[in-house]
Amino acid sequence: MKVFIFLTAFQKTKIMTDSNNKSKKVSRRKFLVRGGLGTLGVLAVGTYVFRNPMRRAMYELAETMVVPYSGSGTEANLWIEVGNNNTITLHSPKVEMGQGTFTSFAQIIADELDVNINQIIVKAAETTTGIIDGMSTGGSLSVAQLFQPLREMAATMREKIKQEAAKKMGVDASSISTADGVLTANGKTMNYSEAIADVTDWTLPDTPKLRPISSYKYIGKPIKRTDLRAKVVGEPIFGMDAEMPDMLHAAVIRSEHVGGTLKSADISAAENMPGVVKIVQKDGWIGVVAESYAQALAAKNKVKVEWDVPKKWTEEDLRAYLKVGEGNMMITQKEGSALDEDGEDVINMEFTSPIGAHAQIEPNGAVAHVKDGKATVILSTQVLGVTQKQVAEALGIDATNVNIIGTYLGGGFGRRLNTSHAVQACQMSEAVGKPVKYFFTRKEEFQHDAFRPPTHHFVKGKVNEEGNLESLEHHYASGDVAMNSVIFPPVMASVLGSDVGAMRGGNIMYTNVPNYRAVQWHKTLPFATSFWRSLGLLANTFAIESFIDEMALNAGKSPVDYRLAMFGDDEHQNRIRKVIEVAAAKGNYTDKANDNRAMGFAASIDAGVPCAQVVDLSIENNRIKVHKVVCVMDCGLAVNPDQVKAQCEGSIIMGISATVHEKMTLKDGQLYPTIYGPYDMALMRNAPKEIDVHLIQGVDVPLPVGEPPLGPIGAAIGNAVRRITGKRLTDIPLTLG
Amino acid sequence: MKFTFNINGTSQTVDIDKNTPLLWVVRDVLNLKGTKFGCGKAACGACTLHVDGESVRSCSYPIHFVEGKNVRTIEGLADGDNLHPVQQAWMEEVVPQCGYCQPGFMMATAAMLEKIPNPTDDDIDANIVNVCRCATYYRMRKAIHRAAEIKNANS
Q1: What residues of B are in contact with residue A224 (Cβ under 8 Å)?
Q2: Peptide bond into A610 cis (omega under 30)
Q3: pLDDT average, residue stretch A404-427
Q4: A726 touches B: beta carbon within 8 Å
Q5: pLDDT at A23 exceeding the cut of 60
Q6: Is the same domain home to B114 and B54?
Q7: Do A339 and A471 touch, CB atoms closer than 8 A?
Q8: N or C: less crowded end of chain B, CB within 10 Å?
Q9: What backbone torsions phi and psi does residue B43 show, to the nearest 5 degrees?
Q10: Touching check for A627 and chain B: CB below 8 Å?
Q11: Which residues of chain B neighbour A249 with C-beta distances below 8 Å?
């Protein structure tokens, strides 16, 4: 109730701005106060991060692949409350997908606000407040983007609270000390809630100087996840667990064929099934709404549908359609002169990767209630703002009448950057006048994913007498990743000219090679492809680093030394060099196979985060068995080193799964397989028993960590297999035939 | 049809179609949301719970099989405020990431430890065959060994 009252006040309040604020050296943010809050004992402040976030986002994305936090563009975009009971609530503009970001946010706030981390509650903001990230939760950027704004905001709030306490205690603010949410001066104490009770003047002090990172109690420490207990006792925190009073359940029928359109449907048998409330027919899908899920599913099976399928796509069709030399071409990197393609001395290797499914365990779904021109939707999504707009547009109502309530996500991995199924849930709710819960069957998940696109690569090079590369080129073809994405404006594609998502990991990092190029070929595929954790990095690094390994073998050199010789000596290059050196040392890398066991080495840089891995594997019963992975990553400041390591461990095993096990194919026009098992994924038995992660802090700010460690793993596995069998594996999933 | 069974120590009677999967009775009728839907085909293990102490994938287990039996879900794994050794070990090792599949893994592990008090790595590989997309298997294996230690020390 308190929050509701606050929101009312919030929306009526004119935002105060100070266009004369020039103190950008101290802080580039202007803190704002939403007035009318003091009587509630609630303090909320917002910040402007950038005047034109989208423009800046595009440039920074192009340059560094790191997108700044955009807020909602024009609104104050961070919101922390000090509640009456001395709790601190962050209404997070980002959702928690599993990486432990809410824990890191709590650590960051606790240190500058001087409260105990247990006083802090972090929950996802809802769209009606406007305090959500205007773009998305994604790119492994949550902590990296919010580290500085949250610290500045918490410090500013601490000073405001001290000022108010000083008035009440009759002392000078400078004599007050703060700890664990309690202010102390001259032996007297007061908690934060008491200090700001009845405050009506919300003029804020300037942001104080932030404390040195080394002095923090929480930041940089392996603090246990704040959501640990909820997740261990099975609390209902996910979108799938959401309910609304008097809710009905739905199942949806969609084409099982790629590109299939609805021709005709006979719903007569289904309508008479037990529990069926309504069958909703829309363009391209049919929704069955019933009293229970089991009833909806049973009735769905009685609907007779005919589909128009213009073309029954096969795997061969796909490979002929998507290949280097076809589609839109863009040179994404160029240094020196191009290779003479027909030259006799050009070494050319071809690689492929398959369609990849997200396969997150929590299915996509939504609980929606549309009533009196307003919509409320609870769902697991990485894009609350986009989903709000999609729902508003489909229902023909104003976006301010659409409240999207984000939950904890049962896996994101990029899948929930596309959650337009909220629209279907809303349309069914509108049709029956009651709340409706709709979620995908697993078959729908596998057939209507927004997949990782398949890729095709040629890596080409020319070496000198010593076997060192004089030219190195990566030519690669991919379907959509960032292109046509709902999270970027269409202008993005035309400004940048290439798919910046497919480009991840596609450029050459070895800048001491005299001539190098990266050339992207892009086509939109007949089924949806989009962001899959690490985007192009997984396949691109596999291709390039497999080729580099082959060149080292040709030259008779250690693959570690061979790589090290190809770096320049600027700061960026030195950071990559260092992870390679440390990984080789920590992993005791050796180039020699021992019977059927060997090591493989590979490295990558993604989002400014270099990572190198040493894989130790054997071949057992003609299958790859990874025993140990040593991972060295320079992710800057690790706000929570334990959870950064967890991200590396998970990425490594997910990478093993994606490069050794997983493959979606097209068969008779359908995407296949449609269930776990046939969609082969790494299980406990496939996970290495040893994973040794070493973090290097090469810069003093947090960088993205959730995706960069997916880079080297595929190539490192292929490189180890090459040393055992003598055979170069060039196609993901890596099988021994 | 009516079915009576015991769930987490409490007797329950439900009136429902006999082929309704136990999962939906637990989640939607009894409102215990800790048991998760993942695939509906017994392929991922997110819906794992115990029926008379045995691990069962409840999405593919009709309610009529449960008549007169004892069902335990993640909500009933702890003894009041005292977490089960598996839950304690999961917290010690900080296993969950997104957390969605974890109740299924914890239930599968708890059932295994009743039969195999000191599981080897091979035992774990053979018995714990659920799917975790965050791929928390590395910490999970450590937590399973740790849970066995805690459980054996308690008994």
Answers
A1: 91, 94
A2: no
A3: 97
A4: no
A5: no
A6: no
A7: yes
A8: C
A9: -105, -15
A10: no
A11: 28
pLDDT mean across residues, chain B: 98
- What does chain A come to in residues? 737
Q: Does domain A239-310+364-439 have CATH number 3.30.450.20?
A: no
Cβ separation of B135 and A229 shorter than 8 Å?
A: no
CATH code: domain A2-227 is 3.30.365.10
Q: State whether B71 and B101 are in the same domain.
A: no
| Total number of domains constituting chain B | 2
Q: Using only C-alpha atoms, what is the Rg of chain B?
A: 15
Is residue B48 domain-shared with residue B103, that is, in the same domain? no
Mark which of B50, B76, B102 sits at the end of a domain. Answer: B76
Running DSSP on this structure, what letter comes out for residue A6?
H
CB atoms within 10 A of CB B14: 17
Chain B positions in Cβ-Cβ contact with residue A359 (cut-off 8 Å): 131, 133
Residue A683 to chain B, least CA–CA distance (Å): 6
pLDDT band at A45 (very low <50, low <70, confident <90, very high): low
Among B37, B84, B122, B124, the residue to mutate for chain A (most A Cβ within 10 A): B37
Architecture (CATH level 2) of domain A315-357+450-725: 2-Layer Sandwich (3.30)
CATH number assigned to the domain comprising residue B122: 1.10.150.120
What ipTM describes this predicted complex?
0.98
Range of the domain at B14: 2-76
Of A363, A441, A676, the CB nearest to B43: A676
The answer to whether the Cα torsion of B113, B116, B120, B126 is positive or negative is: negative
What pLDDT is stored for residue A39 in this prediction?
32
Residues B65-113: pLDDT tens digits? 999 999 999 999 999 999 999 999 999 999 999 999 999 999 999 999 9
Q: Are A652 and A613 within 8 A, CB to CB?
A: yes
Instruction: Check whether A455 has a pLDDT greater than 50.
Output: yes
**Does any CB of chain A come closer than 8 Å to the CB of residue B42?**
no
Residue A601 confidence (pLDDT)? 98
A247: nearest CA partner in chain B: B28
The reply to whether B7 and B64 lie within a common domain is: yes
Mean pLDDT of A65-93: 69
CATH number of the structural domain spanning residue B44 = 3.10.20.30
Integer Cα distance of A670 and A260 in angstroms: 10
If you search the block for the tokens 């007169």, which residue do you land on? B68
Q: What dihedral angle (degrees, nearest 10) is formed by the CA atoms of A394, A412, A657, A255? A: -20
Inter-chain CB proximity A234 and B33 less than 8 Å: yes
Q: What is the pLDDT of residue A612?
A: 98
Q: What is the mean pLDDT of chain A?
A: 89
Residue A714 clears pLDDT 90, i.e. is over it: yes
Q: Does A379 touch chain B (CB under 8 A)?
A: no
CB contact under 8 A, B133 and A224: no
Cβ–Cβ contact A235 with B under 8 A: yes
**Per-residue model confidence as pLDDT tens digits over A165-192:** 999 999 999 999 999 999 999 999 999 9
- CA dist B116 and A660 (Å) reads 31
Which residue spans of chain A are classified as CATH 3.30.365.10?
2-227, 239-310+364-439, 315-357+450-725
Q: Do B40 and A442 touch (CB under 8 A)?
A: yes
Predicted pLDDT at A74: 42
Pinpoint the alpha helices (H) of A521-628.
537-555, 559-564, 571-586
Is A333's pLDDT higher than 60? yes
Residue with the bigger pLDDT between A496 and A215: it is A215
Structure confidence at residue A52 (pLDDT): 45
Measure the CA–CA gap between A722 and A725, rounded to whole angstroms: 5
Q: Are residues B58 and B112 in the same domain?
A: no
Query: If pLDDT is split at 50, 70 and 90, which confidence band does A343 have?
Result: confident
